[in-house]
Write a structure and sequence with these properties.
10 strands; alpha/beta; single chain; two-stranded antiparallel sheet; 211 residues; binds NADP nicotinamide-adenine-dinucleotide phosphate
């Protein structure tokens, strides 16, 4: 698949490396395609991709991933061109700059805002786990859960496969409006990591009984 990733930072870079290793072609959309950051991001792809403008990355992509800071999200999406009907993974969290809370929540979510901006088939995913753990998802024999939600079943099936390819167990968390629940989970992960002494070696796991 051709995968466009808007933002080649912690999240975008990690996802790009993992998916390139699984045979996908990765096109990072970056502010400066000729800069050092872009060159470094591409080095991790083993020849399976490039760093280009957002519009060039998104053109003809099977799926577009939004992996920028929330404050840059609208601009990054606009620079990608017309995304109506495109399968779009929203990995953002609308964090306050000091990480003390969410800028959007309860009655609205970043994912719904992304859908409103673009008309894309948005699936929320990859937002509930620190990117340092992408690809390192075994916790003493238990697999970290990768929660996702969205309104388009075909888009969700595709994203579920992409989540599995990063080593997480995909967990369907329902419609896109449930991003209102997944985004605060990220804040809990961050608070445990930064303020409660948990560090970065923890992940969410949903326990289920068969009956
Ligand atoms: N870090 C995590 O563990 C984690 C986990 C889950 C979800 N998230 C969420 O995922 C998003 C990305 O986080 P991150 O940690 O990967 O951030 P990051 O390391 O700061 O990476 C963001 C990247 O986006 C680039 N960027 C800025 N404006 C852009 C534009 N208009 N078009 C394309 N790229 C642009 C930045 O480039 P420049 O540096 O050149 O500006 C930077 O390389 C955030 O919303 C975050 O809340 C983070």
């Amino acid at each position: 698949m051709k995968i466009a990733i808007l933002g080649a930072g912690n999240v975008g870079g990690a996802l790009g490396r993992l998916w390139a290793a699984r045979g996908h072609d990765i096109f990072f959309g970056v502010p400066d395609p000729n800069g050092d950051k872009a060159r470094k991001a591409v080095q991790g792809l083993g020849g399976r991709g490039n760093a280009v403008t957002n519009a060039a990355a998104a053109a003809g992509a099977n799926v577009v991933v939004l992996a920028v800071r929330w404050g840059a999200a609208e601009q990054a999406l606009r620079a990608a061109g017309d995304l109506k009907g495109t399968i779009l993974i929203d990995a953002t969290n609308p964090l306050a700059p000091d990480l003390s809370g969410l800028l959007i929540g309860n009655t609205w979510s970043a994912a719904e805002q992304v859908e409103a901006w673009t008309g894309a088939k948005v699936v929320k995913a990859f937002n509930t786990l620190g990117s340092v753990l992408f690809g390192i998802t075994d916790f003493d024999g238990m697999q970290a859960d990768g929660f996702y939600c969205g309104d388009d079943e075909i888009a969700k099936a595709l994203v579920s496969n992409l989540i599995a390819e990063t080593g997480m167990l995909p967990v369907d968390a329902g419609p896109l409006r449930n991003a209102r629940l997944l985004e605060p989970m990220a804040l809990l992960w961050i608070d445990l990591a930064n303020n409660r002494g948990w560090g970065r070696n923890h992940a969410f796991k949903l326990l289920r009984r068969k009956f």
